[in-house]
Amino acid sequence: MENVIEANNLTKSFGAFTAVNAISFHVKKGEIFGFLGANGAGKTTAMKMLIGISTPSSGAATVAGFDVFTEAESIKRNIGYMSQKFALYDDLTVKENITFFGGIYGLTRAAIKEKTQVLIDELNLENVANQHVGSLPLGWKQKISFSVALLHNPKIVFLDEPTGGVDPITRRQFWEMIYKAAHQGTTIFVTTHYMDEAEYCDRVSIMVNGKIEALDTPKNLKRTYEVDSMNDVFLKLARG
């Protein structure tokens, strides 16, 4: 299968401190790739390099076929991104948010109109489509934000802690949306601190102190470390 993300000894230093230390990995088209690590492990810094908003100190990487050093703007046009700190505008309605971001992504008015109706139908938002996003429950906001990140049919969607703070039912619904997008060929690169969610990923990498200490399928990682859950794998690695 085609690799849509490739990193080779990717490194980011801030003065004498190395936040990301020579990480190497690849992600295949349509894969759900979990990028795990404790706070301060370097996963957010690594993601910022991959989405084109932070230049690496050394190493090499391509995202959607574009070089992170020289083609950052092309990367941004070919990916979707959902930040941990909820990306939509609270003072705009659901429809206005979709229209705004559709314009940012360069969609035509006709395409925006069509995609708006599809999104509203799929998420059953007809009754709230003209309400301000700020009035909606967090779970709805997160699902809308993910759908908006897919508006322009990106090759890859980067999700930074997408289910933080939502209830278990909404988390399950959100992962059903992730599976659907992956089944349609979109690659999902997701960070999460919920270890049960790591079980839903095709493959998982675990960062400790700026380095990738483990990378494999959840099943193989549990077998390798002779434990029953991904939480136990994470704890073993974190303890060294």
TrEMBL record:
Keyword ATP-binding listed: yes
Residue ranges constituting the ABC transporter domain according to the UniProt record: 5-234
Alphabetical list of SMART domains matching this protein: AAA
Stored PROSITE patterns: ABC_TRANSPORTER_2
SUPFAM superfamilies registered for this protein in UniProt: P-loop containing nucleoside triphosphate hydrolases (SSF52540)
UniProt keyword annotations, A-Z: ATP-binding, Nucleotide-binding
GO molecular function: ATP binding
Amino-acid biosynthesis listed as a keyword: no
Protein name from the UniProt record: ABC transporter ATP-binding protein
Species name: Gaetbulibacter aquiaggeris
